[in-house]
Design brief:
The protein is an alpha+beta fold. It contains eight helices and 13 strands.
């Protein structure tokens, strides 16, 4: 009886060791490639050969809401949009047709569903297929990406609290916020197996003064941390930073974002030319940007970065108080 128990015990140990060895062996021999093209299929509607260059636009649409009251959002502008929306939609559609961009990053639009409806009803022939973002549960100004190109993983920063740099609470603790971080999203753009990049669209905290600057610096540090991780895995990774940054060249948070002397560096293709974007009818400030990192800058079409005025001044102001900015990139080697 004792011998039988010993044999059973030894057999059990051998089985456990064997299972453990097999499991460990399986874990060590299984490798996953980080290339997104290894795990996705090209959509049936997409032909990469048609996109040897691509264009990306950023545009803040200024309180661009739909006709319906969202019961979860308590705001008079969203509850009762008022008159003039039909004209703004028609003008926006006309401008989008003239711009003819492959990707448009909107700020201050109510939702991805609204952008999709606008495309279906007003500029269906432009061929936008995907509409994505991470909308706020209690506010109506969101960032939405509209694309003719396949999109990969969407990254949201909405659940993260960031420090308001240089600011303390009444209790002497580090001030923090998470209220506007939903207005920062990134998504992988899958142009072709040799050209994939991470696109970020933002609407950073508005306003001047130390607190608002510190608020934006906390947001920028979060994004730069994400980019540092991307580049540590792939030093050749391309990143495109777009949106209404609510900062101007020379501001401390602008310098922090550009990252001179760091491993995450961006380039402003319009740094040496007048590129004012706000207000639309008489611009005096640059608030809106399309900024490639060093790696993506190599594929920028020379001279393609510019502030756009596809319609007359009065029409542009009816659409928004911001002007759009565009850049074009070569996607073939």
């Amino acid at each position: 009886m004792h011998l039988l128990r010993s044999l059973v015990t030894i057999s059990s140990l051998i089985l456990l060791v064997s299972c453990g060895t097999m499991q460990k062996s399986s874990q060590t021999t299984t490798a996953y490639n980080s290339d997104p093209w290894d795990s996705v299929m090209i959509p049936e509607w997409y032909d990469p050969a048609e996109f040897d260059t691509i264009s990306v636009v950023t545009w803040n649409l200024e309180h661009f809401v739909d006709d319906y009251d969202n019961p979860y959002i308590d705001n008079e502008r969203e509850n009762n949009p008022g008159e003039g929306l039909d004209e703004r939609r028609a003008l926006l559609a006309y401008a989008i047709e003239k711009i003819d961009a492959d990707i448009i990053v909107f700020q201050e639009i109510e939702s991805a569903a609204y952008a999709s409806l606008l495309a279906d009803e007003h500029f269906e022939q432009q061929g936008y297929r995907l509409f994505t973002g991470r909308e706020s549960s209690d506010w109506y100004m969101n960032v939405v990406i509209m694309s003719r190109l396949p999109l990969g993983i969407l990254y949201s920063y909405a659940n993260i609290s960031t420090p308001i740099e240089g600011q303390l609470t009444d209790e002497g603790e580090q001030a923090r916020q998470h209220f506007t971080n939903n207005r920062m999203v990134s998504v992988d753009v899958l142009v072709n197996p040799d050209y994939t990049f991470t696109l970020t669209g933002v609407h950073l905290k508005a306003g001047r003064g130390d607190r608002n600057e510190g608020w934006r610096m906390g947001q920028v540090n979060l994004l730069r941390s994400h980019y540092s991780g991307i580049l540590s895995r792939d030093p050749d990774a391309m990143i495109l930073f777009t949106g209404d940054l609510n900062m101007q060249p020379g501001d401390p948070e602008y310098s922090l974002l550009m990252g001179e002397g760091t491993d995450v560096r961006f380039v402003d293709p319009l740094a040496d030319v007048e590129s004012l974007t706000h207000p639309a009818d008489d611009p005096t400030r640059q608030l809106d940007y399309v900024l490639p990192n060093d790696q993506m800058m190599e594929s920028l079409v020379e001279g393609s970065s510019r502030v756009l005025t596809p319609l007359d001044t009065q029409s542009m102001r009816k659409i928004s108080d911001h002007l759009p900015v565009i850049a074009r990139f070569i996607t073939t080697k």
